[in-house]
Amino acid sequence: MKKKMKRLKQILISAIIIVSSSGCNNDFLDLKPQDAVSEANVWQDLNLIELYVNDRYNELPHGFPQWAGGLRMTGITDESYHMHEARFLDKYTQGGLTSGSLNMYYFNGFWLDAYSAIRNNNIFLENIALYSGEEVERVKQLTAEIRFLRAYFYTELISRYGGVPLIKETFSLDSNFDVPRASFEECVEFIVEELDLAIQDLPNKNEAVELEFGRITKGAAIGLKIRALLFDASPLFNISNDQSKWQLVSDACEELFNLSQYSLSTDYKGLFLNAMDPEVIFFKQFIDQYGFELVDVLSDFYFHYRGGHSIDEWRFPNGDGGWISENPRQEFIDQYETTSGVIPVLGYTGTNPNNLTPIINPNATNYNPGNPYQNRDPRLRYSVLYDGTVFKGRQLEFWNGGKDSRNTDVDFWWNGSVLGYGIRKSLDESWELNAGVASDQPWIYMRLAEFYLTYAEAQYHLNNFSTAVEYVNRVRSRTGVNMPPINASGDLLAKIKHERKIELAFEGNRWYDARRWMDAENDFAKDIVGVEVVRNPSNGSKSYRYFYFEGGTGKRSFPAYHYLWPIPIEEILKSNLEQNPGYN
User: Which residues of 545-569 are buried (b: 16+ CB within 10 A; e: fewer)?
Assistant: First the structure.
């Protein structure tokens, strides 16, 4: 019965899309075929309307895809090295992006997917007025969800490309298809207007329960508005440092906080597995979805991603049958403070690239180079797999010859980490390889801590330093983290950026943040450092060898024009769209 209902849904949705696409032939709509649903019937039937909206949720990308077309972008930042995607990502990490489809194969599919989703949203907004039933409030909510989804795709587009064509209605055969790029400010204005309309008719989190659980809420719409405004206020686009833009960010944050619907989690490690956590604002569920689906659309020459995810297989250590694909970089591990609130390692020195000497911060008095993971910010063990940490009830063995190493004597050695680390955040430790590769933990798009730190950043730019410090310390002092407070002395903005880097590590934020700050030219251009753990077989003691990783894509660069992606070359050739600088 379940498969039958699923098939019926697929037929209905396909019929909706096919009929909507044939609007140029009114006679066709009057035929009332027996094996399809007419457009007129769709917009009169609330059940069919809801099915249409539900299918739009499936178009949302999530951060668990295997490839870079999604939001899982840690491997193109200074957070990690993706050893199973290096040959695909090196066009970005080594400064080699061009507008051609070969170099952008794993990146520019998003442009096409986004505009496809926007078109489907436009179909809804153009036709929903045909509904004449009694469920007016429900239709208002569904309309608000569609406005959010359209705004979501535009927000993601402008964060990658800058100003883009604003397509607000579907095309007909006699339409002018040559739509110019709107300015970045025009796009932000449209996004904010759409979200303000949506917020009026969306439910609060405490109303989105039972069958409504997982639907878009007021908090999600305000959070998306904050993100769009934050890009507009940041240095990448706010060249003149217009203070009024930071005030808009601040106001939107306060709008979110005033909902009184969210609170910081007391379980930093577990919140990424629990969509019901009080900190979670917006998320994507994976129900009855087996793994992922690779879609290669030959007509547009780009990679497209569909379906669920297999993040546990991709990130589990090889000692438990996983691929440990994404290896956090040693320089990023060094950013996790000691429990006294000090960054312990300031860099590396030495003439031998295979045996570097850490530059120990003299203020890190409780840091032990012989036991480098001791006395560290608890978020390190919640977020990272490292030698000696307990995972699935055992201590991980990244040392050469250990169960999780690349020693050829151990199982799955070819998947062992090349840098000595793996990503722990979001992993479900109950997963077993023989249980199948699919995973069902939610993707968390937004949570409260992000917006506390956004608010702190806005308050800094508005010269409200004490408030900025207060909101950073709220995040640092959460139960289970309990890191010492920061103060306003020294470079406060650097402290805010650092907290954001650590708190939101491996969640997809870093790529957006470093670019909007215009820090990526420096931060993403640093070559990769890894660690080899050497274990003395006679007494079990360990030492640590640090090295520059130059295999694969260990050497990094980030030219200034990489701050924006190139618009797909096919779009440029068939229109008068202006390409982003550096890609002509």
Answer: ebbbbeebbbbbebeeebbbbbbbb
